[in-house]
Amino acid sequence: MTAAERSAAEMRGLLRFAQGLGLDEATVKEIYEAVGREAAEAGVGDDNRMAEVRKRMLMAARLGYNDEAFLSRL
Fold it and tell me: Is the pLDDT confidence value at 41 over 90?
């Protein structure tokens, strides 16, 4: 599986998760990309990276935020 295929598969799963949380695709993408950048810099593995994405998605849903100002603080 190429990196692009893996990324697409991860996003599909996250978008299904997001539907139940009431988050839109743009919010999920922003969180996914931010965590990806941070994980790459820190050398974090895939499992921990995806756990962090889901954690931030839950936080965004609980607080009811879907805007960039909020997401930049996650």
Answer: yes
